[in-house]
Amino acid sequence: MANKYIFLATAVAAGCAVSAAYFYFQLRRLRRADFIRDYAWPPGLLDKLQARHKGFRRKESALVAEGLRQFFLAYLNSGKRYVAMPSQVADDLWHEFILYTRAYDAFCANAFGGFLHHTPALALSPAKRQSNTGLRRVWWQCCKEENINPVKPSRLPLLFALDAKLKIANGFYYTADCAAQRVGAAGGASGYCGGDFSDSSIDGSTTGFGDGAGDASSGDSGGSGDSGGDGGSCGGGCGGGD
User: Fold this and answer.
1) Where are the alpha helices (DSSP H) in 166-242?
2) Could you give the CA distance from residue 95 to residue 242 in angstroms, rounded to a whole number?
3) Which of these ranges, 63-67, 92-96, 232-236, has the smallest mean pLDDT?
4) Is the CB of residue 128 less than 8 Å from the CB of residue 203?
5) What is the per-residue pLDDT across 147-188, written as a single tens digit (0 to 9) for each?
6) In this predicted model, what pLDDT tens digit does every residue of 97-143 receive, in sequence order?
7) How far is CA 71 from the centre of its chain?
8) Count of CB atoms situated within 10 Å of the CB of 144
9) Alpha carbon 237 to chain centroid distance?
10) Element (H or E) spanning 192, and its range?
11) Ranges of each domain in the chain
């Protein structure tokens, strides 16, 4: 009988420990998300983007900055799994941010608990499953952030709309309406459809689409960010090339 009570007490203690750990990771993720949303960009950063894109005013650069925040939140909320950048102009700002080395390092430490390596902007591609995995994760999280149905979107989340909205040369243009996009493609136009992220016919997989959704603790051990490999943490040396 005594052994039975010991077993029950041990099981209860283990359950409490798991629950406590879960709530700890949830709270830490929420605090990091608040840090990202409230972060004040280094002085002069948006000016750098405006110099890079002639015709940009503060209105345009601030919009891009909000798109970059959305990308950082997507990385955090996906459990710091491999992600890919879907916007060329947000990628430009990210690149400029990294050049503020001390500020960027401090930002990553507070936002992610480790360094997030730069990965070049990518587009949905039938031939690149790993790239699509990262894009699908970002698409899912951005849609979740803006209360958009990721399977049948009525509109695009900001990060995926930026390049077309700002008419970025060589940018990645997405549309929420797949039927209209197909008609446009038949007429010689190019672009990508947000609804295709849930379609396995693109590359034979839907990996990354909603995986780890709601898993606040996944990959959130406080180590370096895993932006360049698909799967678990790979330490401080992983990440896409700059």
Assistant:
1) 178-186
2) 8
3) 232-236
4) yes
5) 999 999 999 999 999 999 999 998 999 999 887 766 555 433
6) 999 999 999 999 999 999 999 988 998 888 778 889 999 999 999 99
7) 4
8) 18
9) 20
10) strand 192-193
11) 14-198
CA dihedral 65, 68, 69, 72 (to 10 degrees): -160
Secondary structure (3-state) at 53:
coil
* Contact between residue 115 and residue 101 where contact means Cβ atoms under 8 Å apart: no
Provide the angle, in degrees to the nearest 10, between the axes of the packed helices 129-145 and 158-165. Answer: 100
Distance CA 157, CA 176 (A): 9
Predicted structure pTM score: 0.79
Per the DSSP assignment, residues forming a β-bridge with 85 are 121
Distances (CA, A) of 83 to 6, 19, 134, 165, 211: 45, 28, 4, 23, 12
Cα-based distances in Å from 135 to 64, 78, 85, 210? 18, 11, 7, 11
> Which residue in this structure is represented by tokens 């990385």?
75
CA 84 – CA 204 distance, rounded (Å): 18
Report residue 193: phi and psi, to 5°.
-105, 130
